Amino acid sequence: MKIFTTLPTAQPPTTAEKLQAAAVELEAAFLAEMLKSSGLGKASESFGGGAGEDQFSSFLVQHQARALAASGGLGLSEILFQSMMEKTDADQF
User: Fold this and answer.
1) pTM of the full predicted structure?
2) Pairing with 52, which of 16, 44, 67, 93 sits 20 to 30 Å away (CA)?
3) 69 exposed, middle or buried (CB, 10 Å; 0-12, 13-18, 19+)?
4) Helical H runs in 1-93?
5) For residue range 52-93, what is the model confidence (pLDDT) as tens digits?
């Protein structure tokens, strides 16, 4: 007895999905720089500090920035997305 199974193939992301992801990443990068400038990633003295803490605090800032951007952020990603979509639509004609 042979059993044939076909797995559903994943559809490649559309141009709009790729542009949306790029816009969110751009906003996350912007937010990460803003959070660093505000001093969010600086190690507090209560944990002892050190080089390791400084390095890992940057990961925390990046994660927080991505979370902010994914949940709507400042709305910058939507503006970037619309601008990129307009440019893409203009290039197609």
Assistant:
1) 0.72
2) 67
3) buried
4) 15-37, 51-70, 76-91
5) 777 788 888 899 999 999 998 899 999 999 999 998 876 664
- pLDDT tens across 11-68, in order? 888 889 999 999 999 999 999 999 988 887 666 665 566 667 777 888 888 999 999 9
Asked whether the beta carbons of 25 and 84 are under 8 A apart, the reply is no
37 in helix, strand or coil?
helix
Could you give the CA distance from residue 22 to residue 85 in angstroms, rounded to a whole number?
A: 12
Contact 24, 69 (CB under 8 A): yes
